[in-house]
Design brief:
The structure holds three protein chains of three kinds. Chain A is α+β, with helices and mostly antiparallel strands. The longest helix of chain A is centred in the N-terminal third of the chain and has 18 residues. Chain B has 16 helices and no strands. The longest helix of chain B is centred in the middle third of the chain and has 38 residues. In chain C, helix 6 packs across helix 8 and helix 10 packs antiparallel against helix 13. Chain C has a three-stranded antiparallel β-sheet with strand order 1-2-3, with no helix packed on it. Chain C is flat and about 95 Å long. Chain C contains 13 helices and five strands. The relative contact order of chain C is 0.12. Chain C starts with 22 loop residues before the first helix and ends in a 5-residue tail after the last helix. Chain C is α+β, with helices and mostly antiparallel strands. Classes of the chains: A alpha+beta, B mainly alpha, C alpha+beta. Chains A and B meet through helix 8, helix 9 and helix 20 of A and helix 2, helix 3, helix 5, helix 7 and helix 13 of B.
């Protein structure tokens, strides 16, 4: 066996502790590195990349296969410089099965727990990044060229070597391929042109951009890069396997349907992976079984090849209640993502089962910036309504009319904190400097007070008064005003309850409000067709910095609060720009409209365009502050309620290395946004059974 | 007989063709298409879909062609056994349905057996003890089963089973048995999981069947041949079971025919609540997401099952009851 | 032609005279004069289950019609301090053992358990709120006509009287159940009316005229019957324009529900009409020159009516249950509209079953309504059947 006893155990503890201490830079608190602040610019980040341990060990079940000649020895299977994953508590033991009950049939929850394909990993809730699949990166002075260094000797789960050819294959034969439905992601585009890839050697790849791309490593850390969400964001694919299905390389196929089916490991167990576990059995829509990947490139600080758990058994269940009953029956070792969807009202059920099923029930921060939000459609098709919605007094009135105390009490059981609606409070820009903190507080408190008097005064000022004496306020022209909150019919209870309270609040200040549940399939049709009146049933989860995913703060697409303007931005630089100008904005394809020159949207675009390509981190942060100031001055554009609600996380007591304290997690958790790759970001490969044999 | 069969066959086929047309139209009735669902899903996960991607997908799903072209492609494939590809899962429709069919049939047939095994004796008992307290009790119990909303009953039973009996609920097998070879223990495990859906779905069907049995039996018990059999000195049990029940059961066989589609689709609501890997939720999701070919194929399967079931029931009835043959 | 005198039996004999016939005998002799409907009514009354069901159902309808009179609370108002409060018991004896003639309820002490995220409400025996009847409360329009503000019961502020507890937003369950009952109990009626109309008309036409018309209608019926209904529901529910109000949605859902039910009624009516067509009175009417319409409306439909009523009554519980199922699937009436279906949706979590079971009480009302309709339907069917013992 591989177990270490006292002496070396203490030694490794020392190694771990010193690594963690080493990661805390003497830079200003919180113990964070701002993204891109790897200044001086040319160095790879030194955070938590200790020297590889001298001795390597593998799991017993693999060792048997090596002795039987079925597998090559460990040194040949993992890279020369394997990825060292620090452990939260201590070195673990091999053995055991992780059982999961996911409610997402497409395997998205599972993919979110596997960070293996990602070159860069976020750690500590996005406060820091460290190399993952890649062993380091560097850029030139103005961040137009980035070089990624990969680990020599990395292999796919079927033993074939991983090289940068896999990335080049993805780029040239998938993303740039017009016949294939994956398009180049926007972080590979700068200055209006797609990046160029240059292979330096098998494990070094250079990316050349036409304009500075300072966010490149951050974008690499976003999402697990394995087909989440929904078949996109792949970046690293097993080209040796997929080439046999690609029409360009194979005579058998001339369309991409089979290729598309084969390229996702969540539905195709034969596809080699770089994760800790590889699929061995898949019953579509029912279950999936994964086993230890003998070629996984990560080890723990003592040189034991990860993961500790031998198997993962995933069962797909339709219903949240069944998933819950499984957990409280003690059938799930660690419940992260599926439990995230359990509403807070169910916490008492989990707590009741703590003793009987030997569970530890925790609440980790969700990191939401808004809680359940509402946003009026800034580009409403009715010109009168649009005028009102664009009037900031009206939006402030809407916000002041909302009784957030009530919502916090009734819907969120007193957790979280009241907010007007911002990006996630865990965003780097809010926490790094005093200036950022102040701006965040200003934005958060912009219209957060429950003040119906003030709301009514603002409404009166905006000309929204009751003209016909029926008790409801009307539009300035006298036409009837009805606020219609559109939400998806299958929105969770959190949203429906909040919207009912909001409706009560708005009606108390004289605004007639209805709630309109729409079948979920239809709501995106409405959103893109600019038919939304006031959208509810959503939240801003995103962070950890404003620019990796700016859709909420800057309208760059038609999916948020200014569909027509956002769609206009999205068509800039594409062949559609400048066309269809004679048509009515709603008749264009896609419906889009240019905002007037004095609109705050135009200012937001200008600042954003600058920020995207600003190589200097300090200057970039200042530009983000500009964006925030525009929101403070002309906002709120989206109205939030209660921020940073916790989510439920359940682990069995005999599972070790689960982060539990705020320090271990970084900021206490950041489970909401998909880009944060929870729960892969807490590295389940180092979870283990404390009482394994 | 032969002309009857031939005529019915022609009717059946024409009905099925009509259903395929109407069904396809109904599936595409809601505005938008699967693409919009796809975009919405990606939106919820926080990403947008590029226009070029939408165009490529539109071409792949053939959504840019008019609907009758898509219908034609699908129908012609249908008769060859190619049911198209599902948009959502990007796999062949027939694979998807086939995988789930096994469990669905197991559950449905168990439910059918349960319903019949409970309803027939109860109905006979109620008929033979008419207006006594046994009859009333059976009526109330049967009715109660019919009146409880399925999903509520399923949830309550699930919670009781888990909390008070520590049972692992949901699915059809416990973790240990799911990959194990068949054995008595595995069969017992299956039964432990099967009782819940069977009871929930079965209680609803039992009442109706019981009442029908009771009604028919009451009618038959008034017939003269029953009196004659009693007069001949046959034991009461023999009179009831060998003579009366056999005749009273005919209309119930018609019901069997109509229950064929529910064998295939299973009970949708209960499957969703209990998270059973049956075809019902698959079908429902396909409809909601406008996954045209998956939903359409399902619809055709169900319609075919119903039509064939009716036909078989009629045949069976004609064979059992000579009177019908002469109609 | 000339009529021969009808012979009267025993006319040539003298029968012994006995006592004067009793009242019962005299009444029985009137039987010949009683209408069919009266006969049916008497038979119906003998079925205890059916009568019981009718009484309970009538009571339920009264409750929901006068919902705003009965409950002191608005079913939409959020009471943030009383989230998920267990039902308050009506008491007559207080904690010190004193008997009060007027029932009362205790006040509530509330504490939020921040560790388990659950509200703990305790009855506070120090706060006694006697129940007052015919109190003045929030204004409403009785039966939609009269402005008034009298409610059946209530307590003085700041007391509360949540007889069936409250839901997740602190809303009174009694109010929600009664107002929700308005929707659930009427959706069956609306749907069934459409079913009756469509089914009987189509069935009668098909059976009466026969030939091509019959063939076409029968094919249509077969088509609809073979059509899996889930598809219809899902498609139509999704196809409804998303900005329709709840009321419009409600009517649309009833129409959809009735589109499922009319086919079997049509078939049964057709079978009956086929039989009636061969009857002598039909031939006589035709010979007398009655128009088709008259024959159908005056001769056939009334005979089939009793059967139609039975089918209709037995179809209503199906519609009530279908409404709850549709809401569960997210296709029917959706929150924030209140119906028993949406209330049951709210109850569909483990925490409700284990910790707040009073949220499931609407289920009892559903069961009650469905049971009653079934018993009544059975009772009518037994009463109408001339061959039943």
């Amino acid at each position: 066996m591989h177990r270490r006893r006292s002496g070396l155990w203490w030694f490794s503890l020392l190694v771990v502790v010193s690594m963690i201490l080493g990661a805390c830079q003497p830079a200003p608190p919180p113990a964070a590195e701002a993204p891109g602040a790897e200044a001086p610019a040319a160095e790879a980040p030194a955070a938590e990349e200790a020297a590889p341990p001298e001795e390597l060990h593998e799991a017993p079940m693999l060792h048997e296969k090596v002795l039987a000649g079925e597998l090559p020895p460990l040194e040949e299977r993992i890279p020369k410089e394997p990825y060292v994953i620090p452990v939260y508590e201590g070195i673990g033991k091999y053995g055991g099965t992780w059982r999961r009950f996911d409610t997402d049939k497409n395997g998205n929850h599972l993919a979110m727990a596997m960070y293996g394909h990602s070159p860069v990993h976020w750690v500590k809730d996005g406060l820091d990044k460290r190399p993952g699949l890649a062993k380091g990166w560097e850029s030139n002075e103005d961040k137009t060229e980035w070089t990624l260094y990969f680990r020599e000797g990395t292999k796919w789960s079927d033993g074939a070597p991983f090289t940068v050819d896999d990335i080049i294959f993805w780029w040239e034969d998938m993303a740039l391929n017009p016949d294939f439905p994956e398009s180049p992601p926007d972080w590979m585009i700068a200055g209006g042109k797609t990046a160029e890839l240059e292979k330096i050697d098998d494990y070094t790849l250079k990316f050349k951009f036409a304009a500075p791309a300072p966010l490149f490593p951050d974008r690499l850390a976003m999402w697990p890069n394995s087909g989440v969400p929904d078949n996109s964001e792949t970046f690293v694919v097993p080209s040796h396997y997929l080439k046999q299905f690609h029409p360009k390389y194979s005579d058998e196929y001339d369309t991409y349907e089979v290729f598309d089916e084969k390229r996702l490991w969540q539905i195709n167990p034969e596809r080699p992976v770089l994760n800790a576990w590889m699929p061995v059995l898949y019953e579509p829509g029912t279950r999936m079984v994964l086993e230890r990947n003998p070629y996984y490139y990560a080890v723990d600080p003592e040189g034991n090849q990860l993961p500790y758990w031998d198997r993962v058994e995933v069962t797909f269940v339709e219903d949240l209640e069944v998933s819950k009953l499984k957990v409280i029956n003690g059938e799930q070792e660690f419940c992260g993502r599926p439990c995230k969807y359990q509403p807070l009202s169910e916490l008492s059920v989990f707590k009741d089962a703590e003793e009987r099923a030997n569970l530890e029930v925790m609440l980790w921060d969700g990191g939401s910036g808004t809680g359940s939000l509402v946003y009026p459609n800034y580009t409403h098709p009715d010109p009168e309504k649009r005028a009102i919605y664009q009037d900031k007094r009206f939006r402030r009135a809407l916000s002041h009319a909302i009784d957030r105390d009530k919502i916090q009490k009734v819907v969120y059981f007193g957790t979280g904190f009241k907010t007007t609606g911002t990006m996630s409070p865990k965003a780097i820009e809010y926490n790094r400097t005093e200036e950022g903190r102040k701006l965040f507080e200003q934005w958060r408190d912009l219209a957060v007070d429950y003040d119906p008097e003030k709301a009514m005064a603002l409404l009166d000022e905006a000309g929204v008064v009751d003209k016909d004496g029926d008790g409801w306020r009307d539009m300035p022209s006298g036409k009837e005003l009805v606020l219609r909150i559109d939400i998806a019919a299958n929105a969770s209870r959190e949203h429906t309850l909040t919207d009912e309270i909001i409706k009560e609040n708005w009606e108390a200040v004289g605004l007639k409000t209805t709630i309109n549940p729409v079948p979920s399939e239809q709501i995106s049709v409405m959103q893109e067709g600019n038919q939304i009146d006031i959208r509810g049933g959503w939240e801003v989860g995103d962070g950890p910095n404003h620019l990796v995913f700016p859709q909420w703060v800057v309208p760059i697409g038609n999916q948020r609060w200014a569909p027509l303007y956002g769609a206009w931005y999205a068509t800039l630089g594409t062949p559609k720009e400048g066309t269809e100008l004679d048509k009515d904005p709603m008749d264009r394809n896609p419906p889009r409209e240019e905002p007037p020159a004095d609109s705050p949207i135009v200012r937001l675009w200008e600042v954003y365009n600058q920020a995207k390509i600003e190589p200097d981190d300090e200057k970039r942060e200042q530009l983000v502050f500009e964006i925030m100031k525009i929101h403070i001055e002309d906002g709120p554009f989206f109205i939030g309620t209660v921020a940073n609600i916790p989510t439920i996380v359940v682990a069995k007591k005999n599972v070790g290395n689960v982060p539990k304290t705020k320090e271990q997690l970084g900021t206490g958790g950041f489970t909401n946004p998909w880009i944060m790759v929870y729960f892969g970001a807490v590295f389940p490969e180092q979870f283990y059974y404390k009482d394994a044999q | 007989m032969l002309s009857f069969i031939v005529r019915r066959l022609i009717y059946m086929i024409s009905t099925l063709i009509l259903i395929s047309v109407v069904g396809f139209a109904v599936i595409n009735l809601p505005p938008g298409s699967y693409l919009d669902v796809y975009i919405a899903q990606r939106q919820i996960q926080g990403t947008s879909t590029a226009q070029s991607e939408i165009e490529t997908l539109r071409k792949r799903f053939a959504l840019d062609q008019p609907i009758y072209v898509q219908y034609w492609k699908w129908v012609t494939g249908f008769v060859q056994g190619d049911f198209g590809r599902s948009f959502q899962y990007n796999r062949e429709v027939k694979d998807l349905i086939w995988e789930r069919l096994g469990f669905t049939i197991v559950i449905s047939i168990s439910t059918l057996l349960f319903t019949w095994l409970v309803a027939i004796p109860l109905g006979v008992y109620a008929a033979t003890h008419q207006y006594q307290w046994g009859d009333n009790l059976a009526a109330v119990v049967g009715m109660a089963g019919l009146s409880i909303p399925n999903f509520m009953l399923a949830l309550v039973l699930m919670v009781i089973a888990q909390r008070y009996f520590g049972q692992s609920v949901g699915g059809l097998f416990s973790g240990e048995y799911i990959d194990a070879p068949w054995s008595l223990a595995k069969f017992w495990d299956l039964l432990k999981h099967l009782w819940l859906p069977v009871v929930v779905v079965g209680t609803a069907g039992t009442a109706g069947l019981m009442r029908m049995m009771r009604g028919n039996l009451l009618d038959v018990l008034n017939m003269q041949y029953v009196q004659a059999a009693r007069a001949r000195g046959l034991a009461e049990a023999v009179v009831i079971w060998k003579h009366a029940v056999r005749n009273a059961i005919h209309p119930l066989i018609m019901l069997l025919g109509m229950s064929l589609p529910s064998i295939i689709s299973g009970s949708l609501v209960v499957s969703v609540v209990l998270s059973l890997p049956t075809t019902g939720p698959l079908y429902f999701d396909a409809l909601r997401n406008q996954d045209m070919f998956l939903a359409g194929t399902f619809l055709m399967f169900l319609a075919t099952a119903l039509v064939v079931g009716n036909f078989l029931a009629d045949l069976l009835l004609a064979w059992i009851d000579p009177r019908i043959r002469y109609e | 032609m000339a009529q021969k005198p009808i012979p009267v039996p025993f006319a040539d004999r003298d029968l012994p005279s006995g006592e004067a016939p009793s009242q019962a005998t005299l009444a029985a002799m009137d039987v010949g004069r009683w209408s069919v409907w009266y006969l049916i009514w008497r038979r119906f009354l003998r079925n205890r289950l059916a009568v019981g069901g009718a009484l309970v159902l009538g009571f339920l309808y009264l409750l929901v019609i006068f919902a705003d009179f009965i409950t002191p609370y608005d079913h939409l108002r959020v009471n943030e301090d009383f989230v998920l409060r267990p039902p308050q018991r009506l008491r007559f004896v207080d904690s010190e053992g004193n008997f009060h003639l007027r029932p009362f309820v205790y006040g509530t002490q509330t504490v939020l358990d921040t560790e388990n995220l659950i509200w703990l409400h305790e009855d506070d025996p120090n706060q006694i709120y006697p129940v007052r009847f015919f109190v003045r409360g929030r204004p409403y329009k009785l039966l939609g006509l009269f402005e008034t503000n009298i409610h059946l019961y209530g307590v003085d502020e700041p007391g509360t009287i949540f007889l069936l507890g409250t839901d997740r937003l602190g809303r009174d369950m009694v109010a929600r159940i009664l107002f929700g009952g308005r929707v659930s109990l009427s959706i069956g009626l609306v749907g069934v009316t459409l079913t009756i109309l469509l089914g009987s008309v189509m069935g009668t036409i098909s059976g009466y005229f026969g030939g091509l018309v019959d063939l076409l209608i029968q094919r249509l019926v077969e088509l609809l019957m073979s059509f899996p209904d889930v598809a219809l529901w899902a498609a139509f529910a999704a196809a409804l324009p998303p900005d329709w109000s709840t009321v419009k949605r409600f009517f649309a859902i009833s129409i959809i529900l009735s589109l499922i039910g009319w086919t079997s009624l049509a078939r049964q009516v057709r079978a009956k009409v086929l039989a009636y067509r061969e009857m002598d009175y039909t031939a006589a009417a035709k010979a007398a020159g009655a128009s088709h319409a008259r024959i159908i409306l005056v001769h056939m439909l009334p005979n089939a009516l009793s059967h139609i009523i039975v089918v209709a009554t037995l179809a209503i519980p199906g519609m009530i249950l279908a409404e709850t199922a549709l809401s569960f699937l997210g296709l029917g009436i959706l929150p924030p509209a209140v119906s028993w279906g949406t209330l049951l949706q709210d109850a569909q979590t483990v925490s409700v079953v284990v910790k707040h079971p009073w949220i499931m009480i609407p289920g009892i009302f559903v069961i009650l309504a469905v049971l009653c309709y079934n018993f009544i339907g059975d009772g009518i069917r037994d009463a109408v059947d001339p061959y039943a013992i």
